[in-house]
Give the backbone structure.
Amino acid sequence: MGAVAKTVTATDWRADFPALDQSVHGQALIYLDSAASAQQPAAVIDAVARYQREDHANVHRGVHTLSHRATEAYEGARDKIRGFINAKSRSEIVLTSGTTESINLVAQSFCRPRLQPGDKILITHLEHHANIVPWQLVCEQTGAELIVAPINERGEVELDSLLDLIDDRVFLIGMAHVANALGTVCPVEKVIEHARQRGIPVLIDGAQGVPHLDVDVQALDCDFYAFSGHKMFGPTGTGVLYGREAILDAMPPWQGGGDMILEVSFDKTIYNELPYKFEAGTPNISGVVGLGAAVDYLQSIGMPTIARYEQELHDHMVARLKNVDGMRLIGEARHKASVQSFLLDDIHSHDLGTILDHQGVAIRTGHHCAMPVMQFFGVPGTCRASLAFYNNRDDIEQLVAALEKARELFA
C-alpha cells in the first residue's frame, strides 16, 4: 500500500517557533500580534547564528574567504526574494531596512526630482503612517498636493471615488495591499489597471500583504512594491523595495556612501549599477541572511497553503468574537486577511490589552500607526488581534475566554 499523506496542521508549524513555547504570567503564551512583528522559526534563528559564528565579514569588498561566504549568502538571499515575489530581475530587488525606508526612497529619489507644484500624490484613508508621512514631506518640499481616497463604514476603500480622483495631475498612487489596522484587502489590481491606462506609477505597501498572500509583482503589474522582513518571519531591520528596472535605473541615488559607487573623485562620482546604487554603506548582512531563510521556510509550506489556512482561521475568529457580549468589531470588510480590530464595552483598549496579557494573550492596542483610520471610526484606538499560520483554534478560544474574564472584572 502507498504511504498515507500527512495532513499538516498549525500544531506542526507552531513547533518550528521557539518563542511560542513559553509562559507569560504563568499562562501559556497566545501570540496574536503578528501584524506588528511575526515570530521567527528556528530555521531563521539558526541561519543568523550560523552566519555570525562562521561567515561574518563585510560583503562585496573582500578577497578573503569569509568575505566571499558573506557575499554569497547575502546575494543568495536577494535571489531568493526575487523568486519569492516573481520579479523579472535581481536588479529590481533593493534591500532596505524595511517598508518605511523603501517608501521614503521612492518619495525622495523617484518623486522629489520630478514633482511640480500642482501635481498630486494619491493615497487612501486606510494607510499606515509610513505610507502617509513620506508623501506629506515630499509634497511640502515640491509644492505638490496629497489627496486621499475615502473609505466606508466597513473599512473598505471606496473604489469608484478613488478612480474619480485620478486625473492628469496625479503623479503617483500609493496604497496598501492589506491595511494594517483593519486587515482589509484592498483592490490593488483594479487600481493598477486603471493607473496603467493613464501611465501613472503605483506603489504598493505590501508589509501586510507578503506574509499572508501569494504575491506576484509581474502579475500585479505594479511599479513599486515595498515590504518588511520582520512581518514575514524574518529579522527586524530588513526589507525590500521592488521596482521596475527601467524606473530604478532612471532614479538618482537616495543616500551616498560606500558600495553605491564605482568611482569617486572630488570632481565627480560614478554610481554603481542596480541595485547597489540604492544600497549605501554596510548593510544588515546577518538580517538579510535570516530573511533569505524566512523565504525558504515560507516556500517550504507554500503561500497558497498559508493563505487558505489563515483565511479559515480568521473567519472563525471573527465569528467567535461576534458572540462576545459588548463586542464592537472595527472594520468588517468583505475581503480581509489576518487582522481584526475591536473594542469591548467601554473598556479602554490599553486596559483590555493589559488584562489579556496577564492571561497570556498578546494583542496590540492603540492607533496602530493609522491615526486617520481611528479618527474615521471616532475612537482613540482599538484592540487588534492578528493571526499567523502558527495560530490555531485553541488560541481563538483562549482569546475569547480572556475577553469574557475582562468583562467580568469591569462589570
Q: What stands out?
A: The domain at 45-300 is CATH 3.40.640.10 (Aspartate Aminotransferase; domain 2).
